[in-house]
């Protein structure tokens, strides 16, 4: 399975913060926002990743992330000229996807929780599509999935005025190769965007959509507003300062999953210097050598 991280959009809900910088490059506590969805795809074992950015921000992402070789990965880049919707990612990435399955992660979504890695890895060989559902207080902001009495998904709507359930669909999706064909059929909605919910509806109609409800041990943040960005930052800060583990450390994920070896960690330690991030990588190195 390959991966796509959609890191485009104007970030207008965060203005004036995002006028001069991409939303996905903003700090969430001690690291750039993009590190979090990147670490999630890497947790799933995905090494080939396409970053879709705005034309003006691509150079900054390339400067930050490079070609991925330092993480044992292969990073490629593409441009979304205008924020035409999530479904367009698969049309833009058609050549990159080729004949493979693909996971899409939104660059402003953060996930954390026990068992997350094993849950993600269970979806990489999907026949059809796999999405998730997460209970929220304001489902009208998201795609919403409705279940019947047997907990089987029966409908999906994009940002409905009157949601049929409290279950929002987070920005993490797993698809087989048919997603490219489906994405090409998606027409712009009344909002003028090619909605990801339309693709999910196609899989649902075909009987090929899995929906997993995220348990209470899982946390999800959509950092599209100032309040949610602040909440995510506070969550990461509190958790990291109380525990000995760092959330979203891409070098650690790469090391633990054997994407890279000890020498690459040493190079990263030197790169990050005396920062908190660099000091954390130094502790990983000491634990390994012990």
Automatic annotation (TrEMBL):
Cofactor or coenzyme needed: Mg(2+)
Organism, as annotated: Salegentibacter flavus
Question: What CDD domains is this protein classified in?
Answer: G1P_TT_short
Tell me its EC number(s), please. Answer: 2.7.7.24
Q: What Pfam family is a match, any one?
A: NTP_transferase
Q: So what does this thing catalyse?
A: dTTP + alpha-D-glucose 1-phosphate + H(+) = dTDP-alpha-D-glucose + diphosphate
Q: Does the keyword Nucleotidyltransferase apply?
A: yes
Alphabetically list the UniProt keywords.
Answer: Magnesium, Metal-binding, Nucleotidyltransferase, Transferase
What is the name listed in the Swiss-Prot or TrEMBL entry for this protein? Glucose-1-phosphate thymidylyltransferase
Q: Where is the Nucleotidyl transferase domain?
A: 2-236
- Briefly, what is this protein's role? Catalyzes the formation of dTDP-glucose, from dTTP and glucose 1-phosphate, as well as its pyrophosphorolysis.
Gene Ontology MF, one: glucose-1-phosphate thymidylyltransferase activity
Alphabetized InterPro entries for the sequence:
G1P_thy_trans_s, NTP_transferase_dom, Nucleotide-diphossugar_trans
User: What family is this protein classified in?
Assistant: Belongs to the glucose-1-phosphate thymidylyltransferase family.
């Amino acid at each position: 399975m390959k991966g796509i991280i959609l890191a485009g959009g104007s970030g207008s809900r965060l203005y004036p913060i995002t006028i001069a910088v991409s939303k996905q490059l903003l700090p969430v506590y001690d690291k750039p926002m993009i590190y979090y969805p990147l670490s999630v795809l890497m947790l799933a074992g995905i090494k080939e990743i396409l970053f879709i950015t705005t034309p003006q921000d691509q150079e900054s992402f390339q400067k930050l992330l490079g070609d991925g070789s330092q993480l044992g990965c292969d990073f490629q880049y593409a441009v979304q000229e205008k924020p035409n919707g999530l479904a367009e990612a698969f049309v833009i990435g058609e050549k990159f996807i080729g004949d493979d399955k693909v996971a899409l992660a939104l660059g402003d979504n953060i996930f954390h929780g026990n068992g997350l890695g094993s849950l993600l890895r269970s979806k990489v060989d999907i026949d059809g599509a796999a999405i998730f559902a997460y209970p929220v207080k304001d489902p009208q902001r998201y795609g919403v999935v409705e279940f019947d009495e047997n907990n089987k998904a029966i409908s999906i709507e994009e940002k409905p005025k009157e949601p049929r359930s409290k279950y929002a669909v987070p920005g993490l999706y797993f698809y087989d190769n048919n997603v490219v064909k489906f994405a090409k059929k998606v027409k712009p909605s009344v909002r003028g965007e090619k909605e990801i919910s339309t693709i999910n509806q196609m899989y649902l109609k075909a009987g090929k959509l899995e929906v997993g409800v995220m348990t209470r041990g899982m946390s999800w943040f959509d950092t599209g507003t100032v309040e949610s960005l602040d909440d995510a930052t506070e969550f990461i800060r509190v958790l990291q300062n109380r525990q000995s583990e760092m959330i979203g450390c891409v070098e650690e994920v790469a090391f633990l999953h054997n994407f890279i070896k000890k020498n690459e960690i040493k190079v990263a330690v030197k790169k990050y210097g005396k920062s908190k991030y660099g000091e954390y990588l130094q502790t990983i190195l000491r634990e390994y050598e012990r």
